[in-house]
């Protein structure tokens, strides 16, 4: 399961930078409302480890998810004609995913757990001849987390929890290279790839005001994925190869280290009556510390640098949702959430076609008996229209990347999820 999740766990970047709240659990239908206070199943290993003290015996959750990202680019009038008219197709499309969690009550006050989930990253792939190929053709950045956890009930109201976040990161980037002084020559290509482990800690507090109301506070530490890679050039002209060799770029390792940002979230759950419950969340993530992910050559006649720092902004998150008991076996979940933009103004890289977004979720849970329940949920994350304006230092005919002007219009991501829960 761990091996399969490492491949399919993450697809599209969404709001909140490159972090996802969606890993196939019931939180999809709630649009993450009450994320750190719900604590109704074993997924609390991820959302707030302190919530494990509310789970009796042994509990297991397995979740599957399928998402579809609709992120088509439309060419604008300011695009350099020499770049062509190929708009790249849909760089996202379909991606499967999922998660797995287990908790074990050791004593009335002590519970341990483990989980695996991929809730960080993105993967995009454009047509090989698309007009923005000199700024990015293909990008994969995935983080799979292994989450051993422990929780302790201090008293009847207060619980504390901690998780070690062992994250396995996978990075691959590919960009086309404009061959200078070679009219009609096919583009060259630059590829970078690496895999690294990073480590962090997640801490949680759960305070039960009364049997109907609980508050959650979580802090997820920064995780450094110290990527480095030797550039793999192919199909470059002799002129460019000589220029790269003279600067030592053919053999030097590039430092592509990134920081999965730290974040804080406060959540609340309140059972109004036997039928209704309300949930909410407010969060912050430090995307200003993200790092270098933009790769390319601005001037192939003078290839001075291959990487660029991206200037991201910290993000804010707010969510509100509810639960309605339709009948004894059926529970309806619904929610809405908003995440602020992490990129300033125009999209800074075509490998990151995401920014602020609204989330709308709905789902149902069915309690078959006391030992098993299952649920289905769906969520739509609407990202609106994202402008893309990239200005090259030189025209395409002189070895530059040219100007790319246009927009990703009415972007969105559809999540469809199923979860299965066992209690022993």
Task: Please specify the SSE layout and strand pairing.
Blueprint: H1 2-8, H2 44-47, E1 58-70, E2 73-75, E3 93-105, E4 110-125, E5 138-146, E6 149-153, E7 158-177, E8 188-210, E9 213-220, E10 223-225, E11 228-229, E12 232-234, H3 238-246, E13 254-255, E14 258-260, E15 263-271, E16 276-285, E17 292-295, E18 307-309, E19 315-325, E20 330-339, E21 357-369, E22 372-390, E23 404-423
Antiparallel strand pairs: 1-3, 1-23, 2-23, 3-4, 4-5, 4-6, 5-7, 6-7, 7-8, 8-9, 8-12, 9-15, 10-14, 11-13, 15-16, 16-19, 17-18, 19-20, 20-21, 21-22, 22-23
Salient structural properties:
424 residues, mainly beta, Porin, 17-stranded antiparallel sheet, 23 strands, 5% helix, disordered N terminus
Describe the protein's architecture and organization.
Strand 6 (149-153) and strand 7 form a beta hairpin. This protein has helices at residues 2-8, 44-47, 238-246; strands at 58-70, 73-75, 93-105, 110-125, 138-146, 149-153, 158-177, 188-210, 213-220, 223-225, 228-229, 232-234, 254-255, 258-260, 263-271, 276-285, 292-295, 307-309, 315-325, 330-339, 357-369, 372-390, 404-423. The chain has a single domain, classed as Outer membrane protein transport protein (OMPP1/FadL/TodX) (Porin, Beta Barrel). It has a 17-stranded antiparallel beta sheet that branches. It is 5% helix and 52% strand. It is mainly beta and 424 residues long. Residues 1-15 have low confidence and may be disordered. It has three helices and 23 strands.
